[in-house]
Write a structure and sequence with these properties.
globular; about 30% helix; 2 domains; six-stranded mixed beta sheet; alpha/beta; single chain; eight-stranded parallel beta sheet; TIM Barrel; Rossmann fold
């Protein structure tokens, strides 16, 4: 048993560094730092994506026992190239710490390659770091860094299979039943982010969409209780938040839980507006009404493709008619809606792309986000097409991570790429005629740093779309 361990928790920088006009506080990294605090350890937190490498020079201490670097964990924002630019970061950190650990998807799926690339790293955490490191946080015994089977170091014996598959699937929300994993925003510079603040109230997913890595990486759906969610909402409100986004991969997985959360917000007269990510099959008109009454003003629905057969093969089973009906109802009661689409899914054809663009126009959500397929490590498509042993470190020429790339990757045929380009240019003209604003890149959002979007303003893009646009009470 050692004395209190002092930790440094770092949110890794993107490449290029993310524009402040879109950044919310990195709640996944803050949650990890909070878990360390809960176990009576000292912790400092720094967001290098928001403040750059220079922030390392402004740290409180000159030396930390353990530094945890979090990269591509629960929020899919990073470009595929980001990790290839970590050399300077690790060199700077190594001057201030005894042990450096990397957490997140790259650490979980490509631990050996990461360790070979960055000699400053002590080890890679396989799976959810809060669960993997729980004993270390509680017992404060550094020998656990060497004996933990889910920390891969240079001394670890190679495993024949992906170590991630053997990690414990504990419910993280049960480990601190009285307080829950409520991210302590006082650890960060809360007022240095946009006016939307985030909660992750559940992890994992019971769906198996082939393009998504959530169920492969995090396992099945696990959630905080409605009372814990209310506590986190109150924490944010006390800090001045008036817009909250739930970044759960599927907030609507449990209808009864959603209704309980809505009731608690109303009963406690919480004065906020909020948004969430839902599945079309999970919601109906009655639930949408209850959500609106509790302050929900924005929902993101992943429609993915206009051809129901291709959508079904992806893992999503609903009709175009249902999507149109649900989204139209939500718009009519005053919600803003974002839809997301993947144009070049496997099996996509010139005709299915046309159907996709036509359905997007017919639905006319306030925000239309067009994606191209990214092979996320841990997803069915990634495993089927590349195998877990292959990654960006092996120069495969595959953009395997970044979901906001504005062009098809080389997973598509030349003919399909050309067809998408032609049809999409026509689509852009049609959307502008419907009063949509085209967002070429994230710098577009700077104008909303000091002004609010109108409730009926409409945007479409292949780039990142800002949260919190036009959310009105």
């Amino acid at each position: 048993m050692s004395d209190i361990i002092n930790y440094l928790v770092i949110n890794a920088p993107n490449f290029p560094q993310s524009d402040p006009s879109i950044l919310i506080e990195p709640v996944d990294t803050l949650t990890l730092a909070t878990w360390i605090q809960h176990n009576n350890n000292d912790v400092d937190f720094v967001d290098l994506d928001r403040f750059g490498l220079r922030a390392i020079n402004n740290l409180k201490l000159s030396n930390y026992k353990i530094t945890l670097v979090v990269f591509d964990y629960l929020i899919p924002l990073y470009t595929s190239e980001a990790i290839n630019h970590f050399d300077d970061m690790f060199k700077l950190i190594s001057k201030k710490t005894d042990y450096i650990l990397l957490a997140g998807r790259a650490a979980s799926y490509f631990s050996r390659e990461v360790l070979n690339k960055f000699p400053e790293l002590y080890g890679c955490i396989i799976g959810e770091p809060e669960i993997v490191l729980t004993d270390l946080f509680k017992r404060k015994d550094l020998q656990l860094l060497k004996s933990n089977p889910n920390i891969v170091t240079r001394e670890s014996k190679p495993k024949e299979s992906n170590g991630l598959l053997k990690t414990k699937r504990e419910n993280i929300y049960d480990l601190f039943p009285e307080t829950g994993p409520i991210s302590n925003r006082n650890l960060c510079q809360f007022d240095q982010y946009i006016d939307v603040h985030s909660i992750i109230s559940s992890r994992g997913c019971n769906g198996f969409c082939k393009f998504c890595s959530t169920s492969g990486y995090l396992g099945g759906w696990r959630a905080a209780s409605p009372k814990l969610v209310l506590s986190e909402i109150k924490h944010l409100v006390d800090l001045g938040a008036y817009k909250i986004i739930f970044l759960d991969d599927n907030f609507s997985n449990d209808e009864d839980r959603v209704r309980q959360i809505c009731k608690l917000i109303k009963d406690n007269k919480i004065d906020v507006v909020w948004g969430c990510l839902c599945m079309i099959v999970d919601v109906d008109e009655g639930l949408l009404d209850e959500m609106y009454e509790a302050g929900c003003r924005w929902i993101h629905f992943g429609i993915e493709h206009g051809d129901p057969k291709i959508r079904l093969d992806v893992g999503k089973n609903f009709s175009n008619e249902r999507a149109i009906r649900i989204i139209q109802f939500a718009k009519n009661i005053g919600m803003r809606i974002r839809t997301s689409w993947i144009l070049d899914l496997p099996g996509a054809t010139n005709d299915s792309v046309q159907k996709t663009l036509e359905l997007a126009r017919e639905i006319s959500s306030h925000e239309v986000k067009m994606h191209f397929l990214a092979l996320r490590p841990g997803s069915w498509y990634y495993n089927d097409r590349l195998g877990c042993s292959k990654s960006s470190f092996n120069d495969q020429g595959i953009n395997e991570s970044y979901i906001h790339e504005g062009r098809p990757h080389n997973t598509s045929s030349k003919e399909l790429k050309e067809s998408i380009a032609t049809q999409f240019n026509k689509f852009k003209s049609q959307m502008r005629e419907l009063d949509y604003q085209w967002v070429p890149d994230v710098t577009f959002w700077k104008k909303f740093d000091d002004q609010e979007a109108l409730p009926n303003e409409k945007f479409f893009s292949t780039s990142i779309i800002r949260y919190g646009l036009g959310w009105k009470k």
